[in-house]
Design brief:
14 strands; Amidase signature (AS) enzymes; single chain; alpha/beta; 488 residues; twelve-stranded mixed β-sheet
């Protein structure tokens, strides 16, 4: 429509903000809006269409997870300790999106410092699932997924340390892709677990995942973990037919305790892939039982190190009247961090401490290697692994906040892709009897995003789950915490 001049980028952007005005009060997907700058960017996009220099993302309104640095636009990680932080630089993905002409709608809500699975941060309040306001949107990129599902933007960026793109995408009935570690620059991504974090897109369908991946992928010398590898045209992978594709079903991912409706939806999805020409075979990932334990040693350890910089000295929140320097550190971190972040810092500091490093962190790193080797063996016989994204559909807000172990177990099917550094994708594959979306996870070998996109594209084309949308309009019955929201 933009190319045909049926609408202008300014009209499109204004329509997005009109939608936000109608539904945001009960979804709570955004932390900070960027309306003034967005309208300026839309005007520039209009000119690019007139000049014939527009690209696939020119004039497209996108949401950005609030863990990605945006020059001049507040970046809080949904944490009090960064409540007044305005970055002096853009993350590399932001530089790429701006060059592509994208319109940045605002910064989306998230679990504090990306540590969580439900987007229920203490400071900014929970993000509600557009399909059912009583349920979580997933996490930690819940604001991005909910914003896409609720039509508050046309796509969004999230980050994924243990499933934080794929799980909220599944719970909100949209598509999400965690790229291979090193495929997308982490420069400007506020660090949680540096060996696990990866930025990726959340969109309405697989085609849009490919379009955004074309823009944000590539080598960045500012990121020491970025891989100098040529970026393919991901949209070229969106071809019909799966003949010759081998689908592996890991037996460890279809175990007792999973919601039967999730199992049924995913297995029905596998049947569809067979109809499209794929060959299905059983595989094994024998070290899967250790994934949760290993993750919750390695990720908190890295978090403990990364979050040591938030001490009230150089930037961010500082306790106003400390008795002395040590008290300032203590009060700032105690009052600036939420309970889950504090919990993970304590766990991480413990497993890195003298006398415990070998027993915990070193041992976890060794088992992580075994997990990666499991995937290498599986991909010798298959192209793609298919599993559930989460063991249940979205649970109710507040249901697991007092049971962190149960919350951690909700990521059991997504953590391993981060451990191995492989790409993983979620596509909608059905609905529960309560009408909540269910996602199917696809995983492939390193830098095999094209294979994932091809399989996901064919599945979408055959099923159409991605075209179903939440039907309800805002009722304004559920109050949400809005003290954070303001325009820059």
């Amino acid at each position: 429509m933009l190319k045909k001049r049926e609408i202008s980028a300014v009209e499109l952007t204004k329509s997005i903000y009109d939608r936000i005005d109608r539904v945001e009060n009960e979804i709570n997907a955004f932390v900070t809006m960027n309306k003034e700058e967005a309208l300026v960017a839309a005007e520039v996009a209009n000119q690019r269409y007139k000049d014939g220099t527009a690209g696939p993302l020119t004039g497209i309104p996108l949401g950005i997870k609030d863990v990605i640095c945006t020059k001049g636009l507040r970046t809080t990680c949904s944490s009090k300790i960064l409540g007044n932080y305005i970055p002096p630089y853009d993350a590399m993905v932001m530089t790429k999106l701006r060059e592509a002409g994208a319109v940045i709608v605002g910064k989306t809500n998230m679990d504090e410092f990306a540590m969580g699975s439900s987007t229920e941060p203490v400071w900014t309040g929970p993000t509600h699932n557009p399909w059912s306001l009583e349920h979580i949107s997933g996490g930690s990129s819940g604001g991005s997924a909910a914003a896409v599902a609720a039509d508050e933007c046309l796509g969004a960026l999230g980050s994924d340390t243990g499933g934080s793109i794929r799980q909220p995408a599944a719970h909100c009935g949209v598509a999400g892709l965690k790229p291979t570690y090193g495929r997308v620059s982490r420069y400007g991504l506020v660090a949680y677990g540096s060996s696990l974090d990866q930025i990726g897109p959340i969109t309405k369908d697989v085609t849009d995942l490919a379009i955004i991946m074309n823009s944000i992928s590539g080598y960045d010398p500012q990121d020491s973990t970025s891989v100098p590898r040529e970026v393919p045209d991901y949209t070229a992978a969106l071809t019909h037919g799966l003949k010759g594709i081998k689908i592996g079903l890991p037996k460890e991912y279809f175990i007792s305790g999973i919601d039967p409706e999730v199992v049924t939806a995913v297995k029905n999805g596998v049947t569809e892939l067979e109809k499209l020409g794929a060959e299905v075979l059983d595989v094994s990932l024998p070290h899967t039982e250790y994934v949760v334990a290993v993750y919750y040693v390695i990720a908190p350890a890295e978090a403990s190190s990364n979050l040591a910089r938030y001490d009230g000295v150089k930037y961010g929140f500082r306790e106003k009247s400390p008795a002395n320097l040590m008290d300032m550190y203590y009060q700032t971190r105690t009052n600036g961090f939420g309970p889950e972040v504090i919990r993970r810092i304590i766990m991480g500091t413990y497993v890195l401490s003298a006398g415990y490093y070998d027993a915990y962190y070193r041992k976890a790193s060794q088992v992580r290697t075994l997990i990666r080797q499991d995937f290498e063996e599986a991909f010798k016989v298959c192209d793609v692994l298919v599993t559930p994204v989460a063991p249940t559909p979205a649970f109710k807000i507040g249901q697991m906040t007092d049971d962190p172990l149960q919350m951690y177990l909700s990521d059991i099917f997504t953590l391993s892709a981060n451990m191995a550094g492989i790409p993983g994708m979620s596509v909608p594959c059905g609905f529960s009897s309560a009408g909540l979306p269910i996602g199917m996870q696809l995983m492939a070998g390193h830098f095999k995003e094209e294979t994932l996109l091809k399989v996901g594209f064919n599945f979408e084309s055959a099923t159409g789950f991605h075209k179903q949308k939440p039907t309800r309009e805002p009722s304004l019955r559920i109050p949400t915490k809005r003290s954070m929201l303001h325009e820059e």
